[in-house]
Design brief:
- The structure is a single chain.
- With 343 residues, the protein is α/β, with parallel strands linked by helices.
- It is 51% helix and 13% strand.
- It has a seven-stranded parallel sheet with strand order 1-4-5-6-7-8-9. It has a two-stranded antiparallel sheet with strand order 2-3.
- Helix 14 links the parallel strand 7 and strand 8.
- The longest helix is centred in the middle third of the chain and has 25 residues.
- The chain is globular.
- The structure holds coproporphyrinogen III.
């Protein structure tokens, strides 16, 4: 049976618009909170293949998305490279920050795949559990976004430490980025070899970088990963998400070679339809906060998006991930709206 999401990512849309949602697994679902409560540490939870596979499937049972995204986190890559990563309740991720040459010397690809092996096991489990028409999505963070956490040691407003290292010590910063490119390419290849049908690269913090560094920090590392993954797996679509990159979305597509892009909430749809969608498949872009209030305004906005992007390959998604306060019944209404729409 053919997978409608996979076909659409390859540039062959059908009558129905396929859909999946970023953070479709997570705290807005009571059944997620129940399984999550059985493991104290979030990292250990991500490294538990049975639990990770179960929470990946939960939203599909409710809403029948066309895609299942592997349950894991972008910060498993620095953990696999030997950095200390942990999550604190209420304040998000924490890492022992990478500041000096000695800190960078501590990071290594040796032992990486053993450390993250549970992720590959989760993918293999899902491959066996999913119906043949469902697309299995693997993912990783893009080097720039992962580096912001590694260098700042936490989520931060303006990624000050990472930007300052990028400008002030480009050699040291370049070593971190090169290591991330190699680790991420290998990590995505292993996910594909374990059964992922397509992969998404999340560059959540691509926002507002000066164009002089956008090339070195976003375009080149992403292109290097795309080239490495495509050399081994030429038929696996790669989705890029240079979130809030504005007009740089066009260059991102031209220069990285991705098969699809995820549009953040701010991308104007007529511009996307005219400038991006003739080159790649687009995903997006309803505001996750509109799904919190739901009702007719959410339905109207979903239809507006479906109509605006109906002349090319489109995968319906959010402009960013679901927030924990999302009422599950609103996700049901949104899913039905997309499922019933015909191009
Ligand atoms: O359903 C899915 O989308 C798959 C799983 C997934 C998670 N994180 C699970 C998660 C994916 C694809 C991610 C990606 C991710 N992780 C990104 C890129 C996408 C984005 O949102 O911009 C980033 C920046 C991270 C880093 C991260 N992980 C942060 C900043 C946080 C804390 C914020 C928060 O929401 O608590 C996490 C934790 C996290 N990752 C949770 C989930 C479900 C919540 C923690 C929990 O359940 O205890």
């Amino acid at each position: 049976m053919s997978k409608i999401l996979l076909e659409t990512l390859r540039g062959n849309p059908g009558e129905r618009v396929p859909f999946w949602f970023m953070r479709q697994a997570g705290r807005y679902l009571p059944e997620y909170r129940e399984v999550r409560a059985t493991t104290k540490s979030f990292m250990e939870f991500c490294y538990s293949p049975d639990k990770a596979a179960e929470v990946t499937l939960q939203p599909l049972r409710r809403y029948g998305m066309d895609g299942a995204i592997l349950f894991a986190d972008i910060l498993l890559v620095p953990d696999g490279l030997g950095q200390n990563v942990w999550f604190e309740v209420g304040s998000g991720p924490k890492l022992t920050p990478v500041k000096t040459k000695a800190d960078v010397d501590q990071l290594s690809l040796t032992g990486f795949h053993d450390k993250v092996d549970a992720v590959y096991q989760t993918v293999a489990k899902l491959k066996n559990m999913l119906p043949p028409e469902t697309t299995l999505l693997g993912f990783a963070g893009a080097p720039w976004t992962v580096a912001t956490y590694m260098i700042d040691g936490a989520g931060s407003k303006d990624h000050a430490a990472a930007r300052q290292m990028g400008y002030g010590d480009p050699d040291l910063f370049g070593r971190i980025m090169d290591l991330l490119v190699e680790a991420t390419a290998q990590y995505l290849c292993k996910q594909i070899e374990a059964g992922a049908d397509a992969v998404q690269i999340f560059d959540s913090w691509a926002a507002a970088l000066p164009e002089s560094v956008f090339d070195d920090w976003v375009l080149r590392p992403t292109k290097a990963i795309v080239d490495k993954v495509r050399a081994k797996h030429p038929d696996t679509p790669i989705i890029g998400f240079p979130r809030l990159a504005g007009l740089q979305y066009a260059r991102f597509i031209a220069e990285t070679g991705v098969d699809a892009v995820s549009l953040d909430t701010g991308v104007p749809l007529d511009w996307a339809a005219n400038t991006l969608q003739d080159k790649v498949c687009v995903q997006g872009n309803i505001d996750p906060h509109l799904v919190v209030s739901g009702g007719q305004p959410m339905v109207d906005e979903a239809i507006r998006i479906l109509e605006a992007l109906k002349n090319g390959p489109h995968v319906f998604n959010l402009g960013h991930g679901f927030v924990p306060e999302t009422p599950p019944e609103n996700v049901a209404l949104l899913s039905d709206t997309i499922r019933n729409y015909r191009r």
